[in-house]
Amino acid sequence: MAVNPVKHEMPAQKPEVRARNFREVALGYPMEIALEEARRCLNCKNRPCVSGCPVNINIPDFISRIKEEDFEGAYRIITQSSSLPAVCGRVCPQETQCESQCTLHVRAKMDPVGIGRLERFVADWHNANSQEKPTPPASNGHRVAVVGAGPSGLTCAGDLAKKGYQVTIYEALHTAGGVLIYGIPEFRLPKAIVAKEVETLKELGVQVETNVIIGKTLTVDELFEMGFEAVFIGSGAGLPNFMNIPGEALKGVYSANEFLTRSNLMKAYEENPHTPIMKGGRVVVVGGGNVAMDAARTALRLGAEKVYIVYRRSMEELPARREEVEHAEEEGIDFRLLCNPTEILGYQNPEDPRDPKNGFVTGIRCIRMELGEPDASGRRRPVEVPGSEFTLEADTVIIAIGTSPNPLIKNTTEGLEVNRRGGIIINEEGLTSRENVYAGGDAVTGAATVISAMGAGKVAAKAIHEAIGG
Question: Which of 299, 302, 278 is nearest to 287 (CA)?
């Protein structure tokens, strides 16, 4: 039977509707479409898609179970490798990972199989229909502490719990999930999905202690004194980067990290919330990654009249997922590409220092750019075009140019080596310069993808098992 050359489209809310609500944009495959998409898989013998997955999910086997309408069996295959299937099916950049290796795409020049969409279908089917709960394995007597309840920490904890370890996760915030909760908006990843994945880990025996800041409430050394035999640091990258241009201290200037955290954890999206956050007016988001897209689309849903994305390179160099860029364009986000901010402008009434408008953002000064020779990363370096300055009126400016690891753990853990960007230095097994202290995810690399953090958590869990329990 001939293979359909085109991936089945994901049903979604219409742009004019979704731009003003926080409900999930992508609606998921119905069963009939999932079955049709699964039948596109060739079940290749060499399985290139598996090598493209950072957590090595057995992709052809779970898709084969879908073809047989054994959705629970498909879920069991996925969860052998992934602790967060409903999350990965929504936010992983499959187009640059597993799907980029799909034989249909590489050899036949067709659309790859919609692996991520099928993973989401399976996870959602399980969450909606299955009454099965995981059975905690017998304890092997070993205790491991995990710092941070984000994707790397949750993955490390899940892998170890499946092997009988007594795992306790220490989370600084009041809700487990890390960037999945405070960083990714509801319309891309519903909070209930994350809560369900965390609950599954708890059913495996993982303990989660929230409101515990490692480096302040407890130190890494104190965790060992409490009887833990190994510690995994998956504390993320919560320190925002700024441009160091004039006006960044004005009222109405946020890091994307702060803006999204206020919106997500302080429920700015509710009707008449008490969240201290700017809403409405004209919003400028500086940056071109997934976080910039999330901030811009969140601002729109919070009532912004106009939202700009200012990015210093062209659309071809934009680092955000293509799907997120397309969604932003459909929703009316105005992309100002090959532009770079030079100053944030504010209101000041010299005749009345008590004027309540004093110190608030009024606009952002930018200069146009052109692409010059490639830089060290291989991308063409943006170069300023002399005399091309212009101003965008703005009430809010959101800086989304990346984050770095928080220095708190480094500063309170003697002998823990970090690089010049503050990332914890590890070997290929995730081991740091401290004995039995492992690390992974954004705390090592700086801001990266959810799935790469999960991969780091798996690597560390394997190494911990071999070191203290294997």
Answer: 299
- What span, in angstroms and rounded, lies between the C-alpha atoms of 203 and 231? 21
For residue 1, name the pLDDT band (cuts at 50, 70, 90). Answer: low
How much is the average pLDDT of 239-251? 97
Provide the pairing of β-strand 403-404 with 437-439. unpaired
Name the DSSP letter for residue 12. Answer: B
Residue written as token pair 């190494």: 463
Helix or strand (DSSP H, E) at 146: strand 143-147
Residue 314 lies in a domain: yes
CATH of the domain at 383: 3.50.50.60
User: Kind of pairing, strands 334-337 and 306-311?
Assistant: parallel
In terms of residue numbers, what domain contains 360?
242-401
| 135 within a domain of the structure (yes/no) | no
Residue 139 φ/ψ region, left for φ over 0, alpha for ψ in the -120 to 50 degree band, beta for the rest: beta
- pLDDT class for 2, splitting at 50, 70, 90? confident
Residue 370: which H helix or E strand, with range? strand 361-374
End position of a domain, from candidates 100, 129, 158: 129
- Do 311 and 175 have their domain in common? no
What are the tokens at 310? 């200012």
Does residue 19 contact residue 332 with C-beta atoms inside 8 Å?
A: yes
pLDDT beyond 80 at 3: yes
DSSP-assigned letter for residue 447: S
